[in-house]
Amino acid sequence: MAKSKPANKYAAAKRPTLSDERKFGRLGYFVGRAVTNIRQNVLINVLTVVTITFAILLVSLFLLVYVNLQGAVDTFSEKVQVTAYFDNELTPAEFAALKDRIVGLSGVDRVSYVSKDDAMRRFRDRLEGQESILEGVPSEVLPSSIEITLKRSQRSSAAVEAFVKRLKTVSGIGEVQYGEEWLRRFSTFMDFMRITGIVLGGFILLAVVFIVSNTIKLTIFARKDELEVLSLVGATRLFIKIPFMIEGVLQGATGSALALAILGGCYLVFLRNAGNFLSLNPVTAGITFLPVEYLGGLFCGGVLLGFFGSLVSLKRFVSTDS
Prior knowledge:
By secondary structure, the chain is an alpha+beta fold. It folds into two domains: 190 residues, no CATH class; 98 residues, Alpha-Beta Plaits, CATH 3.30.70.3040. It contains ten helices and four strands; from the N terminus they run H-H-E-H-E-H-E-H-E-H-H-H-H-H. Strands 2-3-1-4 form a four-stranded antiparallel sheet. It starts with 18 loop residues before the first helix and ends with a helix.
């Protein structure tokens, strides 16, 4: 009886298990390959990390200025008042009736009455050291008034203008002032800051994605032969891409962490030395650091920049050459 041929020893052989895969699974292998890629191309990766650091630092500095400027806006907006003037003093009954009608308008926070004597007292306080100018001037020369403070959500230029229009329809209300020119200019300035931030962020985003993607391209090109071998032995495109995507994520995370660390250091140095060149106390001035949610958003933004930068490069390179 003829002997059967022995089975092909290679056909029965199992795929060898990589040491990293055996210890930590495929994720460990992918992370290990990404770290190896970084070590083999240190200069290119350092350039990418520095670029991401600079981009995130620039955006975070702008956000820091914007957050503190917004805080100053909120503080100043509390002083934005709509004032209705009267030639004669109001009786308690007249003020109570007007107050009820004013409170009935949406957006009103507080309503207070300022008599002629109160107005003269305030005027004297503002002329501290020069009160003699007002000697012999009777309080009757100043009008009495009703001061109306609006809710925070109603303190924009458009909202105040809309409220003043409604207020002038209230019976008994005469001359109304609210510093419309200053409020309009300030609102325009804040709109300009927001638009500038969006445009600046867009340019930075495009620049960083371009640099990161080209860095990954250089890394891929340097390992082109290895990638071709992996493709020939059956490695899927995803298997080839994942280490490079992890590399981009590591670059983004490192750049973001460095940028936030530099920002924190600059902020602490500023707090310690602001009094020497600005003649102010940062604490009493209300200068604050970025909120935690902003810091988290900046860090995640850097990670996403690195990820999408590598993804763009891989989409153009691996999908056609592998």
